[in-house]
Amino acid sequence: MRILHISTAQSWRGGEQQLAYLLGELKSKPLFQSVFCFRGSAIEAFCVENKIEYFSVSHSSAYNPILLYKLHVYCKKFNFQILHAHDSHAHTLAILAVVILGLKTNIVLSRKVDFPLRKNFFTMFKYNHPAVKKIICVSKKIESILTPDVKNKKILTCIYDGINLKKFSKVSNRKLRKEYDLAEQTIIIGNVAALADHKDYFTFVNTAEILLKTGLDAIFLIFGEGSQKEAIAQYIHEKALDKHIKLAGFRSEIASLLPEFDLFLFTSKTEGLGSSILDAYACEVPVVTTNAGGIPEIVKHNVTGLLASPGDAQALAAECLRVISDKELRNLLVKNASELVLGFSKEVMGNSTFLVYSELEKSLKES
User: How confident is residue 252, by pLDDT bands cut at 50, 70 and 90?
Assistant: First the structure.
């Protein structure tokens, strides 16, 4: 079996981490895999570092005929049976290679966002093209969103994100307390997510403001980079909260920093699943989050975490105070979350994806 992963992302976010985990898990499987990506991208650097077969090209639109031609030539060279598109632009690129250049292959698509599909002709066309044999949804919520628009319901399946359970520590290294010169009683409340619109950091800031007005001795740390960085920084400054809310940037060692959090506050207004929540679970950090998208599939209210409606800073702040003030509740949430996260390993995700490939290969041989 020959698989070509297509990734058009330049930076490193949740989707790229999941692809990296998948590439690692598939190394031990009976298949040949390669990655088609853009030159200078984070995923290209990952492939180089981990000695994974790849082919990179200059960054351009999926509609660029030169890009399509290079994909076509590379696919013909290795006779890939399956193209696994890991983002929307990769999906477009794969479909155009099939339709315009007559590439004979099969497409597997990963869908990780809970945005409804656009109702234009091309979107409907590319999701219902017969070359698309399977759509892997990262949550049941995404599967339900796609169901009305995908004619062949059988191609929809759900495979949850996985994490590297061995990567995360449960012991604080106190690095953050030293870095920000924090007193022992200061509570660390943080989030790890791209500074993007759907992560709704403005609600995060509003929640922090409410909590600080109660007299809570806390610092709020935001780990990540993204297009909204300047807008969020300005919003923090306008509220005179620069001393209490810090934009900590992208940190590669986040797995060793997370255990220092006293609370993980995740305020997304839309979310495919929220794999950062799983990271917090693995570090035994209690979670307060919105019930956006697929989040309720991994966060059971009052069982593994606490939920509030997207944009409701008052409710989020109230749930934060519950966790902070109730040690028994906090311990219960951490205990249950630690048990639940064992079922969301990268090994489970990798094996489930390999099974999709294997079943597709079998059906192709039988047809």
Answer: confident
